[in-house]
């Protein structure tokens, strides 16, 4: 056990720390810089059909569903194909309209999640092209799909998914790049995405150097009973994922919300006891997020913000900041989620909980 944990006290921490490598492995050999495109062997022969899809549906559960939400933003922005993201457990029972011209992507770390597998069987029956995005090679979802892309994150043992999430996002970026280039994205823009992807492992290493700082911040928040996580645009799914990480391993109630929705209800919860985690990197909605931060501050909420390295404005407004390097908006979630993984980890450890095997949870949910 000690050996497989590589000297770390928990698998979860080991897997968080492995991310510079796991992210690299997900893209290794798959980026063609000269052509500004990705090469995905598992999709060979299906590319044109995917490009011609009327619609892409993404079906998944939990963290993989959060990855799917980021995928929706990427694919719609760059490939211009309408995307719907479905909870597999809802999708399969609600008589979904699935057409043969649709492509359905099933995202699953384990490749064994019962609801995701059942939704795959349903979509296949209806004649859609079914693609698997899995980590476990030869898993049921990988086998049942018509084609797919492995994320190559390496074995993930901790129940809380960490490196699989960032690798799922890398693979969704690769799929987006492929489709976008086959549609209207220019060579220059494609090459820009590739350069940004190639710089991710170094940027992740930098974030991981904040581990001690995040551990100290965890001291201040470990006794809180509730948390709100807020983000907009590409960072909205990151808010959901940050909240899920905290819930599942620290047993603290946490909710992720699109920051602007706060004023439609959750703002009533804010007082000096309510910590709010903002994911506030510099993107198209940055100024709007600042307004949301000010709204929370005016109600005395405690704020922890994930900001870009060059941001010297937000730290004046909030209680704590954690800095992450800048990248293009579509890839920013791969970086901004990492401090939230570490925060959840340290809070849970400080509360004396079983981080790798939280109560009531299994690594892969094979019951419906
Ligand atoms: C994530 O931390 C969870 N433990 C859980 O939500 C998980 O992502 C979900 O059960 C889906 O699993 P899969 O990716 O193996 O299908």
TrEMBL record:
| Quaternary structure (record) | Homodimer.
Which residue numbers delimit the SIS domain?
A: 46-185, 217-358
Q: What does this protein do?
A: Catalyzes the first step in hexosamine metabolism, converting fructose-6P into glucosamine-6P using glutamine as a nitrogen source.
* Taxonomy, superkingdom: Bacteria
Instruction: List keywords of the entry alphabetically.
Output: Aminotransferase, Cytoplasm, Glutamine amidotransferase, Repeat, Transferase
The places in or outside the cell where this protein is found are: Cytoplasm
What does it catalyze? D-fructose 6-phosphate + L-glutamine = D-glucosamine 6-phosphate + L-glutamate
E.C. number, please? 2.6.1.16
Catalytic center residues: 363
- GO CC terms: cytosol
Give the UniProt record's GO annotations in the biological process aspect: amino sugar biosynthetic process; carbohydrate metabolic process; fructose 6-phosphate metabolic process; protein N-linked glycosylation; UDP-N-acetylglucosamine metabolic process
Q: What class of enzyme is it?
A: transferase
Q: Name one GO molecular function term.
A: glutamine-fructose-6-phosphate transaminase (isomerizing) activity
Primary site of residence: cytoplasm
- Protein's recorded name: Glutamine--fructose-6-phosphate aminotransferase [isomerizing]
Keyword Nuclease (UniProt): no
Its gene name is glmS
């Amino acid at each position: 056990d000690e050996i497989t944990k590589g000297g770390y006290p928990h698998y979860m921490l080991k897997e968080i720390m492995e991310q510079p490598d796991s992210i690299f492995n997900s893209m290794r050999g798959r980026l063609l810089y000269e052509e500004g495109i990705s090469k995905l062997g598992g999709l060979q022969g299906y590319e044109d059909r995917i490009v011609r899809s009327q619609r892409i549906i993404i079906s998944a559960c939990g963290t993989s569903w959060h990855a799917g939400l980021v995928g929706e933003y990427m694919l719609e922005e760059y490939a211009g194909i309408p995307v719907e993201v479905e909870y597999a457990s809802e999708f399969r029972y609600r008589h979904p309209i699935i057409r043969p011209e649709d492509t359905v992507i099933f995202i699953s770390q384990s490749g064994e999640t019962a609801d995701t597998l059942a939704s795959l069987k349903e979509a296949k029956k209806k004649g859609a092209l079914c693609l698997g995005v899995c980590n476990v090679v030869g898993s049921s979802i990988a086998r049942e799909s018509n084609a797919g892309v492995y994320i190559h994150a390496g074995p993930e043992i901790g129940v809380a998914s960490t490196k699989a999430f960032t690798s799922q996002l890398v693979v969704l970026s690769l799929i987006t790049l492929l489709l976008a280039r086959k549609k209207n994205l220019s060579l220059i823009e494609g090459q820009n995405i590739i350069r940004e992807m190639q710089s991710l492992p170094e940027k992740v290493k930098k974030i991981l150097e904040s581990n001690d700082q995040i551990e100290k911040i965890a001291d201040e928040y470990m006794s809180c009973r509730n948390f709100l996580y807020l983000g907009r645009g590409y960072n909205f799914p990151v808010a959901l994922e940050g909240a899920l990480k905290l819930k599942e391993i620290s047993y603290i109630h946490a909710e992720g919300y699109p920051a602007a929705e706060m004023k439609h209800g959750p703002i009533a919860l804010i007082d000096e006891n309510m910590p709010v985690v903002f994911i506030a990197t510099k993107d198209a909605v940055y100024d709007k997020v600042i307004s949301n931060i000010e709204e929370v501050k005016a109600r005395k909420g405690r704020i922890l913000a994930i900001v870009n390295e060059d941001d010297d404005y937000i730290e004046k407004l909030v209680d704590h900041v954690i800095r992450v390097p800048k990248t293009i908006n579509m890839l920013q979630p791969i970086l901004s989620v990492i401090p939230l993984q570490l925060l959840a980890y340290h809070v849970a450890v400080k509360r004396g909980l079983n981080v790798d095997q939280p109560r009531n949870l299994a690594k892969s949910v094979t019951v419906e």
